[in-house]
Amino acid sequence: MKRLAVIVPCYNEEVVIAESYRRTKEVLASLPNPTEIIYINDGSRDKTREMLDNIAANDPEVKVIHFSRNFGHQPAVTAGINNCEADLAIIIDADMQDPPELIPDILALQEKENANVVYCVRKSREGESVFKLFTAKAFYRIMNYMSEVHFPLDTGDFRLVDRKVMNEFDRFKERGKYIRGLISWVGFHQVPFYYEREARIAGETKYPLSKMVKFASTAMLYFSKKPLRLATSLGFISVLVGIVLASWFTLGKIYGFSNAETGWTSIMTSVIFFGGVQLLTVGVLGQYVGILFDEIKARPEYIIDETKNFK
Ligand code: UDP
Ligand code: MG
Question: Which residues form the Glycosyltransferase 2-like domain (predicted)?
Answer without folding.
Answer: 6-167
